[in-house]
Write a structure and sequence with these properties.
Oligomer: single chain
CATH superfamily: Gcn5-related N-acetyltransferase (GNAT)
Number of domains: 1
Strand order of the largest sheet: 1-2-3-4-5-7-6
CATH class: Alpha Beta
Number of helices: 4
Mean pLDDT: 93
Radius of gyration: 15 Å
Distance between the termini: 28 Å
Helix content: 25-40%
Number of strands: 7
CATH architecture: 3-Layer(aba) Sandwich
CATH topology: Aminopeptidase
Largest sheet: 7 strands, mixed
Structural class: alpha+beta
Strand content: 25-35%
Length: 153
C-alpha cells in the first residue's frame, strides 16, 4: 500500500485523538494526550495516509538553529512494523536537513522505568541511528523518566 506524507497547517486534532486511542500502551496520560491533540489542531502536523486514511501523525518542534525535535509521533497500532514510523522519522530528518539543522532529537520514556512498550520504542529509534544521550527528570514524574535521544544528520 502506498504511503503519503502530508504536512497540514492545522486541523489534525481529531486524527491525533483517533490514533492515540489505538496506542494506549504508550500514551496513557490524558493531559499529555490533550496537549498533543491541541497542537495538532492548531498548528502544523505531518499526517501519514494509506489509501487516504490517516495511519500516523508527527509533530515537530524547533530548538535554536541546530535541532529539530520529533515532539510527538504516533502510528496506528495495526500499522506498527509496516514502515509508517520509519517514513515519518525519515521525513523529519529531511526537514531538518532542508532547514540547515544538525540534529534530530526525540524524548521517550527512559529504560529505568522498565516498561516494555517503551523498550520497543527505544529499539525503533536505535535502529534508525538515534543514540541515547541522557535520562532526565523533566517533570514527567519519577515513575516516567525521559530519555533524550539524538541523531546527527
Amino acid at each position: 500500500m502506498t504511503l503519503i506524507l502530508e504536512t497540514r497547517p492545522a486541523g489534525s486534532g481529531a486524527i491525533c485523538k483517533a490514533l492515540l486511542a489505538t496506542i494506549g500502551d504508550w500514551f496513557g496520560v490524558p493531559a499529555s494526550n490533550a496537549e498533543y491533540a491541541g497542537l495538532a489542531e492548531t498548528g502544523p502536523a505531518v499526517v501519514a495516509l494509506e489509501a487516504g486514511r490517516p495511519v500516523g501523525l508527527m509533530l515537530l518542534k524547533r530548538h535554536f538553529d541546530t535541532a529539530l525535535e520529533v515532539y510527538f509521533i504516533g502510528v496506528e497500532r495495526s500499522r506498527h512494523r509496516h514502515g509508517v514510523g520509519r517514513a515519518l522519522m525519515t521525513h523529519a530528518e529531511q526537514v531538518a536537513r532542508a532547514e540547515g539543522r544538525r540534529f534530530v532529537q526525540v524524548k521517550t520514556q527512559g529504560p529505568s522505568a522498565g516498561y516494555e512498550p517503551y523498550a520497543r520504542t527505544r529499539r525503533f529509534y536505535e535502529a534508525l541511528g538515534y543514540a541515547a544521550l541522557e535520562e532526565l527528570d523533566i517533570g514527567w514524574g519519577p515513575e516516567n523518566p525521559a530519555l533524550l535521544m539524538a541523531k546527527a544528520i
